[in-house]
């Protein structure tokens, strides 16, 4: 029999229940016991959904209050001393690592949080010491949650991040020099104990995630797999059988690292179906293949015919008992259920499948290949009908958009003059001081803003009332910036629900949802709009608010847009058209917006591209070069339609810019703001080595945490930056937008930031 398996389920709940509970707990409005009870309720509900869907192998320990890697950091005793010595209980210690803690005499910033592979999910980086030790918690989460499910009558497959990935995804703490992978011998005993305890609790199999195998690995990490998994195999029946799990790429280049003596190997056959034959050929003689054929990263209905063909091809080589039908990755990256979408056009809704529906899909595919297609005849027919309806729908095709794309000229990618000429024209107009201060765009999205927007959406207030409210918010933001004495203002983005969803809602070719939330980090969620057809801009999207903001501001006001690559990456993209085509369509729509902003008197326009780095193919080589080529072109196409005297800014809040520096340089933006506060300023040396001539604002403090940085801390950061950057090219700004913060901490932090900038301004004026 071919089993069906889900690799992980979204945690938030049908109504973002987990977000609401954790935020209530942080605000002191929910007890810890009630938070934990809510988490338990959600886990049980999610196991039941999968059971009712007919899934054979249901995951546990895929749940986390904040992040699954963070949970493992704590369970393995890898908590840096600054947190473990703070006298917090386990839950608060965990949250302190995730989001910082500044209360009751404890003042610790959070651990670094970075993108999970090329997704919009963020994980907390294991942050390791030279003398690191590991100790398994007395009551490990993986065991607790397995037992919890078992007591509810569901025998699950616990999920762990494997030892090589755990270390490879980690880093040495500040001031430490350890290479994480060198800690493997110390870490392995913890896995042995944990796996033994899981077996004793009744777990027959464990999903051990080693997704780093899809990277180009350093030799040491690659070589670490074999001895690690031989060691675990030597424990025989003392531990559960292991499903060695990879996703988000192919593993063909790392095949020798795949353990031979292992129960099962999972591969992502949505991203890389072509790896099937090679991987099957390299499996150990008894190893099972877990075939990831239901997309864990997108919302399109699975094409059953295609998926069944892939699974059948594996069965032909391995036999039915050696194949599992699975989701390609965890379903964490998909929304909870399509059933909540009451407002979607039924024609389009018929094309989608969210997490709960995908659980049903794996079960149907497994049944089709086990018992034959006749056993699921109706489901197969309905699916074929949906596939055909989408392929032939008029909604996907706009000839005018295609015509405009075909007429793009090489000159459409270049500004009129080179940077030196542009910057002097801009400076003449803007008259900015040395070390100009600015923020990244958004100001706190208060409860009041969300309530007003919600009222407007529900038609409880009319457009004029909502517009008036937004104008008042802009007035307030301008006043606050006057008081703070910032140099380049922002309107604060109060009218935006999200920097991508907002644009998706204003562009043709997009569908958007009411409940399709996906966790981005901690309690924060996004509702990615869905690209269903060719994209175009029916009307200006941001001009009204920016024009108003300029009219009430005495200093330069930035116009604020989300760039084409980020709009693409943080949407659910089409899977029937290459992403470069979708990015180009977005770029043309944004180009018109940039030109309209300039016409409306906006002299500084920021086009954010935080997702440019995240879209970089995970392995170096031709694919990466091709991506960078079209991604850079899309950015340029969207920004270069302006006069030299208009200053183009761009923003990146993911700091690993070293490996794509040439692409950042090729964007030709006049000013870049980049996330920097959590990384070593040494990384900035790339700007010196490459003689980068343009302006840069490396973030001087972390905005993900409510913690207020002191003026001295900010001065120290600026001092470090000045070792690498020239005073006349340095801007002073936070790491990213301030929408997730409260006003109190925002003002306090910005006062310190402006004071720090003024200190250096005075120092260098002498
Ligand atoms: C900058 N980042 C972003 C990423 N991806 C995006 N798509 N957008 C980003 O900004 N990726 C990387 C980084 C970090 N990630 C995030 C992700 C999410 C947030 C965030 O603050 N999310 C908000 C939700 C934002 C939103 O869409 N809000 C809507 C709906 C608000 C709402 O909940 N309304 C209520 C009713 C009102 C009420 O009572 O409060 C409801 O619908 O029930 C809006 O504002 O209208 C979050 O809260 O999770 C930040 C950074
Ligand atoms: N302008 C956006 C960028 C976030 S990456 C903001 O400030 O929220
Ligand atoms: Zn940002």
From TrEMBL:
Zinc in keyword set: yes
From the UniProt entry, list the residue stretches annotated as the region Disordered: 386-425
Which superkingdom heads the taxonomic lineage of this protein's source? Eukaryota
Cobalamin-independent methionine synthase MetE N-terminal domain location is 4-317
Its pathway, per UniProt, is: Amino-acid biosynthesis; L-methionine biosynthesis via de novo pathway; L-methionine from L-homocysteine (MetE route): step 1/1
Entry's cofactor comment: Binds 2 Zn(2+) ions per subunit.
Domain annotation Cobalamin-independent methionine synthase MetE C-terminal/archaeal: ranges: 435-758
**Which keywords, in A-to-Z order, does the entry hold?**
Amino-acid biosynthesis, Metal-binding, Methionine biosynthesis, Methyltransferase, Transferase, Zinc
Q: By its UniProt entry, which CDD domains does this protein fall under? A: CIMS_C_terminal_like, CIMS_N_terminal_like
Entry's family note: Belongs to the vitamin-B12 independent methionine synthase family.
Q: What is this protein called?
A: 5-methyltetrahydropteroyltriglutamate--homocysteine S-methyltransferase
* Source organism per UniProt: Xylaria flabelliformis
């Amino acid at each position: 029999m071919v089993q069906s398996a889900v690799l992980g389920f979204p945690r938030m709940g049908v109504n973002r229940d987990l977000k609401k509970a954790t935020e209530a707990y942080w605000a002191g409005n929910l007890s810890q016991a009630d938070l934990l009870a809510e988490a338990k309720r959600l886990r049980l509900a999610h196991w039941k959904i999968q059971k009712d869907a007919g899934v054979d192998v249901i995951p546990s320990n895929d749940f986390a209050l904040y992040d699954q890697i963070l949970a493992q950091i704590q369970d393995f005793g890898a908590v840096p001393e600054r947190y473990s010595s703070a006298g917090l209980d386990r839950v608060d210690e965990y949250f302190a690592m995730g989001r910082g803690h500044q209360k009751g005499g404890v003042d610790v910033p959070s651990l670094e949080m970075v993108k999970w592979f090329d997704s919009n999910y963020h994980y907390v980086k294991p942050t390791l010491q030279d003398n690191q030790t590991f100790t398994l918690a007395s009551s490990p989460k993986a065991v607790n949650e397995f037992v919890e499910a078992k007591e509810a009558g569901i025998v699950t497959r616990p999920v762990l991040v494997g030892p090589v990935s755990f270390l490879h995804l980690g880093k040495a703490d500040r001031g430490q020099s350890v290479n994480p992978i060198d800690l493997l011998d110390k870490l392995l005993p913890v896995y042995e104990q944990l796996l033994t305890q899981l077996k004793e609790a009744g777990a027959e199999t464990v999903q051990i995630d080693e997704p780093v195998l899809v990277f180009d690995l350093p030799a040491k990490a690659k070589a670490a797999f074999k001895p690690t998994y031989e060691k675990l195999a030597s424990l025989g029946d003392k531990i559960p059988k292991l499903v060695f799990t990879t996703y988000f790429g192919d593993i063909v280049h790392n095949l020798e690292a795949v353990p031979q003596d292992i129960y099962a190997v999972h591969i992502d056959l949505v991203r890389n179906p072509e790896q099937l034959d090679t991987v099957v050929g390299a499996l150990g003689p008894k190893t099972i293949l877990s075939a990831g054929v239901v997309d864990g990263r997108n919302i399109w209905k699975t094409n059953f015919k295609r998926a069944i063909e892939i699974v059948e091809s594996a069965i032909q080589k391995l036999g039915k008992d050696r194949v599992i039908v699975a989701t390609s990755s965890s379903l964490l990256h998909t929304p909870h259920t399509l059933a909540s979408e009451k407002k979607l056009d039924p024609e389009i809704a018929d094309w989608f499948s969210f997490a709960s529906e995908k659980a049903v899909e794996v079960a149907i595919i497994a049944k089709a290949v086990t018992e034959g297609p006749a056993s699921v005849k109706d489901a197969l027919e309905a699916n074929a009908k949906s596939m055909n309806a989408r392929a032939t729908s008029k909604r996907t095709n706009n000839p005018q958009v295609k015509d405009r794309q075909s007429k793009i000229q090489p000159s459409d990618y270049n500004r009129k003059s080179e940077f030196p000429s542009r910057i002097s024209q801009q400076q003449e107009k803007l008259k900015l001081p040395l070390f100009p201060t600015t923020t990244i765009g958004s100001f706190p999205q208060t409860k009041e803003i969300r309530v007003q927007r919600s009222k407007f959406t529900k038609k409880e207030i009319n457009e004029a009332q909502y517009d008036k409210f937004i104008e008042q918010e802009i007035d307030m933001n301008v006043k606050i910036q006057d008081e703070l004495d910032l140099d380049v203002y922002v309107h604060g983005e109060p009218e935006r629900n999200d920097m991508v969803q907002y644009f998706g809602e204003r562009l043709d070719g997009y569908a958007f949802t009411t409940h399709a939330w996906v966790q981005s980090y901690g309690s924060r969620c996004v509702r990615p709009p869905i690209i269903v057809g060719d994209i175009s801009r029916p009307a200006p999207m941001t001009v009204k608010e920016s024009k108003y903001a300029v009219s009430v501001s005495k200093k330069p006001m930035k116009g604020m847009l989300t760039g084409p690559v980020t709009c693409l990456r943080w949407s659910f993209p089409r899977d029937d058209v290459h992403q470069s085509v979708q990015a180009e369509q977005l770029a043309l729509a944004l180009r018109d917006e940039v030109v309209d902003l300039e016409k409306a008197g906006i002299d500084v326009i920021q086009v954010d591209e935080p997702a440019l780095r995240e879209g970089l193919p995970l392995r170096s080589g031709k694919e990466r070069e091709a991506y960078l080529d079209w991604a850079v072109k899309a950015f340029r196409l969207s920004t270069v339609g302006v006069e030299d005297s208009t200053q183009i800014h761009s923003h990146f809040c993911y700091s690993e810019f070293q490996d794509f520096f040439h692409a950042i340089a090729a964007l030709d933006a006049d000013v870049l703001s980049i996330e920097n506060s959590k990384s070593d300023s040494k990384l900035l040396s790339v700007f010196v080595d490459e003689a980068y001539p343009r302006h840069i604002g490396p973030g001087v403090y972390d905005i993900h945490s409510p913690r207020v940085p002191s003026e001295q801390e900010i001065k120290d950061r600026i001092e470090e930056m000045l070792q690498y950057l020239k005073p006349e090219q340095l801007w002073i700004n936070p790491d990213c937008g301030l929408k997730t913060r409260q006003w109190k901490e925002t003002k306090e932090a910005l006062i310190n930031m402006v004071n720090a900038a003024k200190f250096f301004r005075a120092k260098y004026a002498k």
